[in-house]
Amino acid sequence: MSAPDLTPARTGRALLLENIHADARTLLSEAGWEVETASGALDESELLERLPGVSLLGIRSQTQVSAKVLENAPDLRAVGAFCIGTNQIDLFAAAANGVAVFNAPYSNTRSVVELALAEIIALTRRLTVKDQAMHAGVWDKSAAGSHEVRGRRLGIIGYGNIGSQLSVVAEALGMSVFFYDRTDKLALGNARRCGSLHEVLEIADVVTLHVDGRQSNSGFFGEEEFARMRPGSIFLNLSRGFVVDHEALARHVRSGHIAGAAIDVFPTEPKGSGHGFDSELRGLPNVILTPHVGGSTEEAQEDIGRFVAAKLRDYALYGATTLSVNLPALGTETTPGTVRLAHLHRNVPGVLAAINSVLAEAGVNIEGQQLATRGDLGYVVTDIAAPAADEVGRRLRELPETVRVRQLS
C-alpha cells in the first residue's frame, strides 16, 4: 500500500522502454513529464534500480513487471503496455499497489491481420521455397504444391479483435472461415463456429492461432493438435510464444504432415534488436520466422504510442481509468474549478460513507463525485472546492479499506 501525502503531483518522471514510438515521448513531454527512454527491455533487477522516482512506466512485450517490482516502486502510478497483451504484468499485484495498467487492445489489429494474410498466401503458394531456390540459382517453374487461397478453409483459433477481423478479410478473398473460441462470439459474415478445437483442426487447410496470454494457454497447442491437423495443412501463430510446442511443430514440418508454418512469437525472445536468436524451426522448408513484428508497422506503432501515452497522462492528471485492464473504469469528466481526490479501495460496504464522513468532519464541501467498482476494488473520485489538508489525506489513508489516495490539482 502506498502512502504519499496529498501534495498534488501533476507531473514527474516517465520511463519508456523497448523502442516505444516517439509520439509517446512527445505527448508526455508536452504534458510536463521528464521522459527517459531505453531501446531494449529491462530485467527485474534493472527495473528495481530504475524505477525510484518514476511515476509512469511504458513497456512492450519483453519487460516483465513482477509483483516484486510493483511492491518496491512506491512512486509508480501507472504502467502502459504499448501492445495488446498484458500477461507480462502482474495485474493483481498492480491493483493491490494502486497502479493502473493500460494497453492498446485495438491499435495494431489491422497490422497483425495483414501479416497473417500475407503469410497465408505466401505459404499456400510456397513462395518461400521458390524464393530460396532462386537465390540459390535454381529455376524451378512448377505448380506442384502451390494453391490459390480462394476456396480453401481457414480455421481461426481465438475469435477476438484480431481473429474476427481476419475472418472478414479472408472471406473477402474467397476463403471459407471456421473458428473456435472458448467463449460465445458472434460469427461475422459467413464464418461458422465450431464446437471444439478438434473440429476446426479436422476441417481447416490453414490453422491460425489468435489466443490471449493467460497462463492457462501455456502449451495449448502441441503434439496431439498437430497430429489432428489435415495432411498438407498450414499453421500460423501470431499470438503468444508459449502456447505452442515448437519441437512438435518442427517434427510435423520435417515429416511433411504440415506443409508450411509462420511463427511470429517464441517461448523465449531476445531482449532487444541485434541479440542472438535460436529456434528448432530455423532452416526448415516453407517456414516463415519473424521477430515478433505482427503489430510492428509504422502506422500501428504511431497509433499505439499516442493512445497508451494519452491513457497514462489522463490517469495521472485526472484519475481517468477508462479502458484500464485492472482498475474500475471512470472517465475524465471533472467539475470546473475544483481539486480532485482519487481513492482506490477494497470493494466492501460502507467505504463511500466513510470517505464522505472524513470530508464532512474536515469541512470539505463536495462539488462532484463518481464511484465505480470492479471485482474486489472500488474507485471514488471526489471533486472538492480547494486542496485538502494533509490531515484529510492521513485519515483517508488510515481507512482499513484504502489501497491508494491521490490529490489531483
Automatic annotation (TrEMBL):
Keywords: Amino-acid biosynthesis, NAD, Oxidoreductase, Serine biosynthesis. The keyword Oxidoreductase applies. InterPro entries: ACT-like_dom_sf (IPR045865), ACT_dom (IPR002912), AHAS_small-like_ACT (IPR054480), D-2-hydroxyacid_DH (IPR050857), D-isomer_2_OHA_DH_cat_dom (IPR006139), D-isomer_DH_CS (IPR029753), D-isomer_DH_CS1 (IPR029752), D-isomer_DH_NAD-bd (IPR006140). GO terms for molecular function: (S)-2-hydroxyglutarate dehydrogenase activity; NAD binding; phosphoglycerate dehydrogenase activity. One of its GO terms (biological process) is L-serine biosynthetic process. It comes from the Bacteria. It is an enzyme of class 1 (oxidoreductase). Its EC number is 1.1.1.399, 1.1.1.95. Pathway: Amino-acid biosynthesis; L-serine biosynthesis; L-serine from 3-phospho-D-glycerate: step 1/3. Gene3D superfamilies: 3.30.70.260, NAD(P)-binding Rossmann-like Domain. It catalyses: (R)-2-hydroxyglutarate + NAD(+) = 2-oxoglutarate + NADH + H(+); (2R)-3-phosphoglycerate + NAD(+) = 3-phosphooxypyruvate + NADH + H(+). Residues 340-409 form the ACT domain. Catalyzes the reversible oxidation of 3-phospho-D-glycerate to 3-phosphonooxypyruvate, the first step of the phosphorylated L-serine biosynthesis pathway. Also catalyzes the reversible oxidation of 2-hydroxyglutarate to 2-oxoglutarate. Belongs to the D-isomer specific 2-hydroxyacid dehydrogenase family. This is D-3-phosphoglycerate dehydrogenase. It comes from Kineococcus rhizosphaerae.
